[in-house]
Amino acid sequence: MLDAGSRILLKDGAIVRLTPKAFDTLLVLVQHKGQLVDKEQLLKDVWPDSYVEEGSLSRNIHELRKVLGDHSSEPRYIETIPKRGYRFVAPLKVPAPEESQVAAEPELPVAAPGPRPSTVDKAQKRWKQVALVLGVLLGLLTVRRSRFRVIATGIMRSM
Known about the structure:
This protein has 159 residues and is α/β, with parallel strands linked by helices. Helix content is 47%, strand content 16%. The strands form two sheets. The protein has a five-stranded mixed β-sheet with strand order 3-2-1-8-7, covered by helices on one side. The chain is elongated and about 85 Å long.
């Protein structure tokens, strides 16, 4: 079961550990179920504010296939369209709100996607982290400068 809101993938009732970008890749493919999602679009959707090479996307697809038990030669979940992109091919089942069972293979139930953090929120968080690091560095430089003055003043007085 894929729960987009909680960002959890369950397989046979157990949580499957995925990197955040692999989960995002799966989510984009599932949202476009049965449709070709070209590599450029996947890169844009999964890494919206970054430039990454196709190899990163290939690693995510490889990770997804590994955890889903899928193979490119006989795809049950992710079909590769050579030199173009990927297609999610497994049947989807959207569970009713009262349904709590995980569906049997090869169906992959999908919960409704939750809100995705905006890039503005991510940028604000990064700036806060940068400001914190700069503040700490400035504090360290100020302390070291003060110590230097104390040492230099002591040397000058002893002369």
